[in-house]
Amino acid sequence: MTIETEPAVADPDEEALRAAVAAGPRPPRASAVSASLTFGWRALLKIKHVPEQLFDVTAFPIMFLLLFTYLFGGALAGSTGEYLQTLLPGILAMTVVFITIYTGVTLNDDIDEGVFDRFRTLPVWQPSIVVGALLGDAVRYTIASTIVVVLGLLLGFRPGGGVIGVLSAVALLLVFSFSLSWVWTALGFVMRTPESLMGVSMLILFPLTFVSNVFVDPETMPHWLEAFVDVNPFSQLVTAMRGLMHGTATAGDIGAVLFVSAVLVVVFGPVTMYLFHREN
Amino acid sequence: MTNPIQTESESAVSRHAARDRPLDTDDETGVDDTALAIETRGLVKHFGETKAVDGIDLSVPRGGIYGLLGPNGAGKTTVIRMLATLLRPDAGTARVLGHDVVSDADSVRDRVSLTGQFASVDEDLTGRENLVLLARLLGYTRGQADARATELLEAFGLTEALARQVKTYSGGMRRRLDIAASIVVTPKLLFLDEPTTGLDPRNRSQVWEIIRALVADGTTVLLTTQYLDEADRLADRIAVIDDGRIVAEGTPGELKASVGSGVLTVRVRDAERREEARRVLSRILDAPVALESDPAALSARVIETDRVPHAFVELSRSEIEVTDFALGQPSLDEVFLALTDRSVHDAVSGEVSR
Hints:
Chain A is mainly α. Chain A has one domain. Chain A has helices spanning 14-21, 32-49, 55-77, 80-111, 114-120, 128-155, 162-190, 194-210, 223-231, 233-246, 251-277. The longest helix of chain A has 32 residues, at 80-111. In chain B, strands 6-7-8-3-9-10 form a 6-stranded mixed beta sheet, with helices on both faces. In chain B, strand 12 and strand 13 (297-302) form a beta hairpin. The longest helix of chain B has 16 residues, at 201-216. Chains A and B meet through helix 1, helix 2 and helix 5 of A and helix 1, helix 4, strand 6, helix 5 and helix 6 of B.
């Protein structure tokens, strides 16, 4: 480390120093909700100071939507406008689900910072560190969703479910993404480097999102593949979102997504926290 | 507990009142009142095949500064991380202010604060945001958090930098912010892991001033350092750690006394005759004689001081002219090197401060 000299900064004032270090009244412990929200606030501050990190949530959705609409639209649905009606909910789900990887990557980066040690020695509900980060990510997911929906509307997407339908589809997507993020947070503690985490996440997400009902009707697939697509939770998410956006969703479609989300949190939440506390 | 919902002026009043109270009146169980600040028995931590900490027994009294002194890789940081609930010991027990670091980690976290070896603040945020963030996490309301952050920034001479991202801070400013972040709520026990490594003398003395102010207020400080003069000046008691074990423990004075009654330094006029002088001194004093970096100087640890005059007689008989000599208490450097049985360069990678 280099020796630093600093000319301009004043010496700490002795009187102020004594007053500042004097033991003050101890505030009551922050509640789990308040601690989570505060960590969420930190995530937002980081977006404010490092806005470059929003690149992925803006560029990805635009690229995906334009690429797939114009590449496949004519061939698969006869016209791009027609294709967009079924494609958009799927592309929306796909872009946001891909962005969830960054949750794990960010956390993986964060762990190596000294500040993480400080957080871990605070008397707060420990999962709030991860929950708060995920809440901050929800903002990123919302930005991506807004971009996809607005761009879609410009390109000719006409949702039959109206504003309420679109908003509830996005809300469902946020719930699913929040839940799926726990998989990456858990992996974030296992993988040594952000790069390896990225690789493994892609390996999971590519089959999950492409072998689904996003691009084509599963009935055109071989039976064994169709069987997989039907049980793929990502297909279920896309089905429910299409239904909500076009006003044809069933309680069963939505229930299935909420069930999968709950399972993800119940399984990977504790796993994440176990790994979080595990010593290296 | 003091009522948390009070105005700033009230809080300032009770903060001052708190100084006159005996320590630890807020603990319902009373266990804090009698327990040692830190008490470990047979503490062990392995990393794979490496025994980073190999059976450490510490008894750190309340109040004052306790120094953990040791070369790089001695296990100082591992000990601190276990005590601060960041690492789980493989064996042995550790109690901090009477609370077990494993089974009662939350109570420990309520009472301690850690300033790690590398800045434990968020580099992307501003100084002010860092302090407000921590104050909110510690349970302050938004308004109280803002007030506390302002108070700390002023006290630590960081007002001008409060709106800048921490990554633009100099080493000294970062360290001060780091310590400020550790005392948003004044802890009963503060862990400082090498708080002055890499700082220039002025910044070092500022950090020392902050540490002394904290101790004057009743906080116990556990400090690790590889700077011997820092331990000598600040610490009331010191444990010297090497290879994961405590090799000596006591006050700086006791440690110095344990090594021998003193050190004799001799400077000969003719550097060419130093080797000859070394043999004479070694024979008379019956102790190893070290050659100093000054080509004409030698030093020897003296166990029996009454042999010293005899040594000078012998030097004079051999017609070796002595220009300068001193017999003094060993410096902590010498104690350290004697205890850890290493050369200066092996021990502290050339970073010994003199």
